[in-house]
Design brief:
Largest sheet of chain A: 8 strands, mixed
CATH superfamily of the largest domain in chain A: Ribonuclease Z/Hydroxyacylglutathione hydrolase-like
Distance between the termini of chain A: 83 Å
Helix content of chain A: 25-40%
Strand order of the largest sheet of chain A: 7-6-5-3-2-1-20-21
Largest interface: A-B, 67 and 67 residues
Number of domains of chain A: 3
Shape of chain A: globular
Oligomer: homodimer
CATH architecture of the largest domain in chain A: 4-Layer Sandwich
Chain lengths: ~550, ~550
């Protein structure tokens, strides 16, 4: 009797229904690999959270799984940012990445002190990877960073094609075009599932090539009479090349500001991926010796992040860089959803300090790295998948990608729009939804990973909205009456020094409740807090947290 | 000897360098009027603030000014929302507004219990207003609400043309076209200053007419098989008319959800500005009797505001409305900067509940009410101002509008890009910057107006990020040693129940500091707080606020 073929399972732990923290597990029977391990930036109401990593409890709990490795599609934070967390949990796990991605992963692991025993394997896109019993055919894709790979994973039921982030850029900066031939060839061999980028599913048409920025930069460089700053993401390596090219064209030197961008540029130059001549680069500490019109400075902080170079310049807090009259500042990125406010504020501040600030749509200084609707259609028509599982994007993007797949000929019942944690199973009978596993957020705050959850965040929300008030009272054990003056501590509620009347009412309420309540300390405390909350709400229409310390002496 | 002509002063108290809370004072000698009194929505980091009103201390402090009235350009919140605050401060101030604007102002004053003695005067755009010694020629403008007016204010040095919010809509929903003739005529009489809308100064070309939405709605209505919801701003009266028209076309009844929208629609219908037949309107409580495909529901909450109808539906918390499979929800607005995250979250939630959600750019269901760059150029060429002062917009928009004015022929030295509080003076020698007056934010939080300032907001920010920890300790007056167990209260920092080890370290630190410090209570308290802060930072890399109560007994 023939052994039955093992089940294939797709376990999405991140990236579905959100922008960021991409992580997917692919299982064949009891063998498994991970694709990507990214972070996500917190929403505005996730107070105090530094970043978010995928919840990979599922992997920790499935002791029966043989985990063979982690493969990376490309080197952006939302795909590699959580690598140190994963390697901490699975110290011997082999990693597979293209040269630039491997370089950027190495930077992360080195910072976390985990590089020494790391099993980091480098492949070239186009290579066939053997990861344990898995066979992955990698293929080159274009995006906003060089060296991107997608994977066709062999399974008993056909290929799973995992695109990674992509757009079809026919004139990429590094000249390496998308591997159409391979994608088309997969279609002939049978693709059981296409897992495709959905980020721009609400945008019609095609995303422009990176080269349109070349012309945009050229126009800005031509006009600029002083220094030029270009702000973008630290890992947008293609953009660095474009800026270097423009600098060469216009006889300007190039300086890099910002720790992560400096390290990434070093790494990419070492690997020969970035082509910047030695004599063009200048140290940030030495830029004052160069005439303004002969200088370009690339910097981080295009998202308005308070700790990055651009924001520090905007607020006059950078050690080496200040805004000078005549500076031209190019923001070569779009705000990530949720960052719009910080970005606008930064632009306004930079203008206030006398700079000229150029951003899209004022000039073509940024294009998205993700394909739009026509590119998604092209992908489906190249690959001809039996089933489609939209990946990478908010829920609305997944839905729209799903609808688009149906319009492009995929039967509705073969489209799997699911959220993180929803397992999808493939066997000889077809594809179906299986169980749900944890797929939520793990908050990283300071040195804590996952130690703050909903309760702490909810408390922070309440404190942020209305602050707190605490009263400490000494009560006589004998007479049951207050001794001395209560101590009152409050922050974030009202400015107490200007609130004499309210303070008097608070004191009166304390006396009233303590001196007139004959019950247990606990009960009395509760009653005091209730009375104070009511008083504060009536007087201010605010609901601060109220605490009391009753000290029986 | 001829009396010398009085100075003219423009005192911007709001709307410059920000989106919202528009308020401008115009003075001729000692006589003054106010144009508009709007509110602004708080930024994401203005924790707990409900809304922001202009700081009009200047007016309260200038006892020598004769304030003659307040004139309104149109009925949006950012132009009339603070009217009750102004009338509370100046109870007898006459108000001047077009019929719809007056109706919307009346709703506000009634809610604030201030309508009884209100001196609300209604004019029609085109009328010449006499406000004390001021003469204002009003002119009709198009925007996203009917009944918009601009003003040409007579001064000894020529006209000040104040556009208000506008776009040049040649096919407005209500058929009332912009008053080009009047604008052109002003140019012949001499315009000393143009104060123009800058909102879309970073957008090339022209803003489409409101009618493009008509076609967009028609396509969506044609496809929809179930109920249709249209979410927009409560005061976007033109949009309500468009929806009513589409409803009529497609034989659907119309229900209105949301307190403020319901009141605004009532008011606009009473004034004959909204044309909705009685038998088309249904009560929200009775919609269950109407087949889904015969119903449209207009609702508030297109900005994702948690308390509005759409967000309550998205979270399954609306008393009467739930999302049903087959519902089509149109978001007929763009997110206000800073709201993008809430809006996306809402869209995703609504999709999750089974609705189809339509938003721009998926379909033409919204256009801006503000003119783009070509319209700004047209305005300048119609009016031919000697000087230009860009209004309404963030600093970047004001800058761009200023540059555009220069490109359109206004000498650079005649362009006044200023921020709130910067007084601009006009006399026979020309125009120049004068002193600065307060022009910042007044926060409204609960029932408090202006009682929370930077300090409280900064405390809320710290509490939001890392929470607080408070320890209460009894210390013996005799032995100087701790009595009993310290009490520890903490919120928003870590989840204490899961932090036994940290708690032990906190207790140890308390004992160590108290039992080994021989100094004043105040000094000891300081030392304890310092030690605890250091401990908590070392252990968690977080910086909660730390408080202590030392009780000597």
């Amino acid at each position: 009797m023939a052994r039955s073929k093992p089940k294939v399972r797709i376990v999405p732990l991140g990236g579905l229904g959100e922008i960021g923290k991409n992580m997917t597990v692919i299982e064949i029977g009891r063998d498994a690999i991970i694709i990507d391990a990214g972070i996500m930036f917190p929403a505005n109401d996730m107070h105090g959270v530094d970043y978010i990593i995928p919840d990979f409890r599922y992997l920790l709990e499935r002791n029966d799984l043989r985990l063979h490795g982690i493969v990376f599609t490309h080197g952006h934070e939302d795909h590699i940012g959580a690598v140190a967390h994963v390697i901490e949990a699975f110290p011997n796990l082999p990693m597979y990445a293209t040269p630039l991605t491997a370089g950027l992963v190495e930077v992360k692991l080195r910072d976390a002190g985990l590089m020494q025993n790391a099993k980091l394997n480098v492949f070239k896109s186009g290579d066939v990877l053997k990861v344990g019993p898995f066979t992955l055919e990698s293929f080159h894709m274009t995006h906003s960073i060089p060296d991107c790979a997608g994977f066709a994973i062999h399974t008993p039921y056909g290929l799973i094609v995992f695109t990674g982030d992509y757009k079809f850029d026919n004139t990429p900066i590094d000249g390496k075009r998308p591997d159409y031939a391979k994608l088309a060839e997969f279609s002939g061999r049978g693709v059981v599932m296409l897992m495709g980028d959905s980020t721009n599913a609400d945008k019609p048409g095609w995303t422009p090539s990176e080269v349109v920025i070349e012309a945009g930069f050229d126009r800005v460089f031509r006009r600029a009479t002083g220094r030029i700053f270009v702000a973008t993401f630290a890992s947008l390596i293609s953009r660095v090349q474009l800026v270097a090219n423009a600098a060469k064209q216009h006889n300007r030197k190039l300086a890099i500001a910002g720790y992560s961008m400096t390290r990434n540029v070093e790494m990419a130059r070492k690997l020969g991926i970035l082509d910047i001549p030695d004599d063009m680069l200048v140290d940030l500490g030495k830029i004052s010796s160069i005439p303004p019109h002969e200088l370009v400075i690339m910097a981080t902080g295009s998202q308005g992040e308070p700790s990055a170079v651009m924001a520090r310049m905007a607020y006059g807090k950078h050690r080496l860089l200040d805004v000078q009259k005549g500076d031209t500042i190019i923001l070569s990125s779009h705000p990530i959803p949720g960052n719009e406010e910080m970005v606008s504020r930064n632009i306004n501040r930079l203008l206030q300090r006398g700079a000229d600030v150029i951003y899209d749509p004022l000039e073509d200084v940024h294009v998205s790295g993700h394909g739009r609707r026509e590119e998604m259609r092209l992908m489906i028509n190249l690959v001809r998948p039996k089933n489609v599982m939209p990946c990478h994007g908010e829920l609305r993007h997944l839905h729209l990608h799903g609808k688009l797949a149906v319009e492009t000929g995929v039967p509705p019942e073969n489209v799997f729009v699911v959220e993180n944690g929803q397992v999808v199973e493939i066997d000889k009978y077809g594809v179906r939804l299986a169980e749900r596993v944890p797929g939520g957020y793990v908050f990283v705050d300071g040195s804590g990973v996952g130690d703050i959850g909903r309760i702490v965040i909810r408390d922070r929300e309440i404190l942020a909205r209305d602050g707190f008030l605490l009263v400490a009272v000494n009560v006589s054990r004998e007479t049951n009456q207050i001794i001395g003056q209560p101590e009152i501590i409050s922050r974030g509620f009202v400015y107490l020094r200007d609130s004499d009347e309210l303070l008097e009412q608070v004191k009166y309420t304390i006396e009233d409740v303590i001196n007139n309540t004959n019950s247990s300390n606990g009960r009395r405390r509760e009653k005091l807090q209730d009375s104070l909350s009511r008083l504060l709400y009536n007087e201010t229409k605010r609901r601060p947290m109220v605490f009391s310390v009753l000290n029986e002496i």
